[in-house]
Amino acid sequence: MRAHLLKSLMATLLVGTLFVSQAAPALAQATAEGDRVKGDIAGTVGLGLLGAEVGLFLPPAFNLQDHWWAWVLFPAITAAGGAVAGAFAFEPRNPEPAVTVSILGAGFLLAVPALVGASALSTVRRDRDIERAESGGLLRFGKRGPELGAPNVTTASVFSQQEQQRYGLPQKTSTRLTLVSGRF
């Protein structure tokens, strides 16, 4: 599980690095003119970063945390969407730098919490799936205390093929209903 988490974080960092490397020339151009910062560039980059951070939460939200492509695709698409939205929203008017630099600062400020939050949500989803697969009784005891749920109903063959041939027995099936289960 730790290897998968590291792989997920590395894919996310790769997407973030690619996005920042694309945005760095625009930021350099914005600050090359002196103390004046062009609001359109800062707003575009800020909304792109915020879009990428929203995209980090989509793989666990859609239960795709086990697929590396989801960790790359969703943040890339939402980052592009945020950058395009920023280009259209801020280009014609060149807004006040106070607004757009604040958006850029929020994008940078929320990068680490977004990575940690998406990783934690992914871990919680994975643990919940494991707990749901392991405990299937009507009364379930787990980390959160006792819960009620739909019991697992399974059917299985009573005799193996070897026992049937050896003793000449007809095949029978048994039905099992799990009433109490737990994980401690």
Features:
5 strands; 65% helix; 3-stranded mixed sheet; 7 helices; mainly alpha
SSE diagram, text form:
Elements: H1 2-31, H2 39-56, H3 58-61, H4 68-90, H5 97-109, H6 111-134, E1 139-142, E2 145-148, E3 153-157, H7 161-167, E4 173-177, E5 180-182
Helix pairs in contact: 1-2, 1-4, 2-4, 2-5, 2-6
Summarize the structure in short.
This protein has 184 residues and is mainly alpha-helical. The chain is 65% helix and 11% strand. Helix 1 (2-31) packs antiparallel against helix 2 (39-56) and helix 2 packs parallel to helix 6.
What do these coordinates show?
This protein has 184 residues and is mainly alpha-helical. It is built from 7 helices and 5 strands. It has helices at residues 2-31, 39-56, 58-61, 68-90, 97-109, 111-134, 161-167, and strands spanning 139-142, 145-148, 153-157, 173-177, 180-182. The protein has a 3-stranded mixed beta sheet, with no helix packed on it. Strands 3-4 form a two-stranded antiparallel sheet. The chain starts with a helix and ends with a strand. The relative contact order is 0.13.
Number of helices: 7
Strand order of the largest sheet: 2-1-5
Mean pLDDT: 75
Q: Please describe the biggest sheet, giving its number of strands, its sense, and whether it closes into a barrel.
A: 3 strands, mixed
Approximate shape: elongated
First-residue to last-residue Cα separation = 19 Å
Order of helices and strands: HHHHHHEEEHEE
The structure class reads mainly alpha
Number of strands: 5
The Rg value, from CA coordinates, equals 26 Å
Which stretches of 5+ consecutive residues score pLDDT under 50? none
Strand fraction = 5-15%
Helix content: 55-70%
